[in-house]
Amino acid sequence: MSPRPITSAPQSLVENGKYNFGCFNTPTRNANLIDFPSPYKLPLPNSLKALQLREWQAFQLQGKDHFVMVAIYNAKKISLVQFIVYDIKNNVKTKYEKKVMGWELNIPDTLYGNSVASYTSNNFSLKATHNLETNTLTVDADIKGFGKLPDVKAHFEGIHNVNSYEPMVVCNPFSAGRAMYSHKCLMPFQGELIMGNKQLKFDKADSMLIIDDHKGFYPYPTVYDWVTGMGFDAQKRMVGFNLTNNQVINQEVYNENCLWLNGKLNPLPPIKVSRPNGVKEKWFIKDEHDTVNLEFLPVIHTSVNINALIIRSKYEGPYGFFNGYLKTVSGEKVLIENMFGMGEDFYLRA
């Protein structure tokens, strides 16, 4: 099996009224899906298209003993901000989450020029600042007086150097008119998290993060499976992976599945996720070419179940540990041994 085509990204994802579909190993300067004239058959003004364009930036940050999930999520009908701290050794999760109005969030269309994704209120603020021209990414959180939870102050700095750490960037079709964009990248980071009287330090020698900058005119309803993990293998190499089975068409050509190995991007084929004993027991993630063969054992769960007339959401998002293997483009088998990560079983009708 030959890997799917990976090329350099275009300057803009929409040019001359058409999508630039593809899978890329460089960033685009303009993730302008909003400029596609007719994702819903008839041409619409940007103000109406924006109501259907889901947008988010999410960050998974992992140190020696702690995992942090940061999300600025705008699905327009359902929008939220999230800051989760998980103590891996002690299996303790502390979750800060706030449902907000979509217009309170800012998510830019570029990762260049000190662009900012943010939410700010009197007691809950998240801010991600990007500048690929200087290889920088900062993520800041300031949360106080949030119920009975301890106050949070956090500052993280990622080394977002796409020459050293290749991204997985896609503009993939759900149909001729609807597409999704994602920029995912694994990189080292450093920083500090103060949570109440606890201070956590993250050193770039043993800490890494995955960014997901994301936009999409998603199908109705939206259904997907997703798993991701990161860590070091037995050879002390930095390893991360992203595996999704969604509603993108022609997934042998268009998908966002990949393995990162010491900064090098390796595209992976389409996958399937099976859960023969339910979401709380072992998951199996495989492809048809013996390139992906993973088991995921959940250890702690996040569930959402909303049924409110026009909105229906069923979500399972456990954290846990992966075992198995992935293969590089050259055929090297990379062993995944008790590697921490997360999965999602997602359904949304909104």
Describe the structure.
The protein is mostly beta strands and 350 residues long. Helix content is 1%, strand content 55%. Strands 3, 4, 5, 6, 7, 8, 9, 10, 11, 12, 13, 14 and 15 form a 13-stranded antiparallel beta sheet that branches. The radius of gyration is 19 Å and the shape is globular. The protein is built from 1 helix and 26 strands. The two termini are 38 Å apart.
Short description:
The chain has 350 residues and is mostly beta strands. It is built from one helix and 26 strands.
How many strands, which pairing sense, and closed or not: the largest β-sheet?
A: 13 strands, antiparallel
> Count of helical segments?
1
Which consecutive residue ranges, at least 5 long each, have pLDDT under 50? none
Round the mean pLDDT to the nearest integer and report it.
95
Task: Name the helix and strand elements from N-terminus to C-terminus, one letter apiece.
Answer: EEEHEEEEEEEEEEEEEEEEEEEEEEE
Structural class: mainly beta
| Fraction in helix | under 10%
End-to-end separation:
38 Å
Strand content: over 45%
| CA-based gyration radius | 19 Å
The count of DSSP E runs of length 2 or more, i.e. the number of strands, is 26
Shape type:
globular
Number of separate domains:
1
